[in-house]
Amino acid sequence: MKRLSQTGSLRLPGLLLLAVLVMSWPAAxxxxxxxxxxxxxxxxxxxxxxxxxxxxxxxxxxxxxxMDTEIEEQKSNFFRDPKQYSVHDLIPGLDxxxxxFKDSSGKVVAQQIKFTQNALKVAKAxxxxxxxxxxxxxxxxxxxKHTQTRVERGEHRAEVxxxxxxxLTAGLKLTRSDVRDARRQAEQAIAEAGAAHHRIxxxxxYKTEELCTLHFAFNGxxxxxxxxxxxxxxxxxxxxxxxxxxxxxxxxxxxxxTGYNHRLSQRRADQVVEHLLQQIxxxxxxxxxxxxxxxxxxxxxxxxGRQENRRVEIRLLINRGxxxxxxxxxxxxxxxxxx
Length: 339
Fold this sequence. Notes:
- With 339 residues, the chain is of the alpha/beta class.
- Helices cover 44% and strands 22% of the residues.
- It is built from 8 helices and 11 strands.
- It folds into 3 domains: 35-126, CATH 2.40.50.320; 130-201; 206-338, CATH 3.30.1330.60.
- It has a 5-stranded mixed beta barrel with strand order 1-2-3-6-5. A 5-stranded mixed sheet has the order 9-8-10-7-11.
């Protein structure tokens, strides 16, 4: 009995240890290893603490901001502390760097968000365009409804005049000259209705009237005197138009890595926008974007080709429905003025 008692006392701690291990072992599916996330891109939209990030490859991610997220300046001066920001500074068009992790649902939880003061300045300029553009769209919709009403009235008038012609010809036996006059009025009404319909169809159509291409030095984004002169000439042409927009696209050669080329091309586009803003209202500028080394126009394997690819393309876009001074035949044929 003494030996059995000793054996039992030896087994009890082992059973207790096994029970503790079983109770503390996580059930299958309860553990989720956090996947680290690090990316750079443009903030597309934000709703409260959740925003959409589009990276330089075109992929989009939902990113959540919480109380522990650090939002601060991406500074180049290491002798001062970075400026701190709030979630309200995360606005559409902002070029940001995000570090965090993906949760079990695939959503990104941000631990750190950084951006430069220049990126915030450009984003604020973009946001300031939203209200005027929405007002413009409201005016365009009002014009569209008004023109549609005129078209319907014109078509009705054409039908009435055509019916009157038939009745007068059959009932009153009008002379041939009277019939010709009545038919001419009917045809004129139909032509006016057709012209109004064509103008309505062209309200959402923009055509490139002028294309200006600026080239930059290796690793450079400063505008030369010649480039500034070309931009001034484009701005002078644009101010003579109505219903125009200016599109700015930045590019780089394939000398550096993908991320650096994107930032370099964005800087080049931002420089052009800052110069144009001295003469052109912000609402007339389409959001500038840097495409990095994508969409080359020449061979990156040659020196001359890389020089051609270090560029910014500025397009003067004209709304065919609002600006009636456009040379319709030239735009239809695809001819674009280049300089």
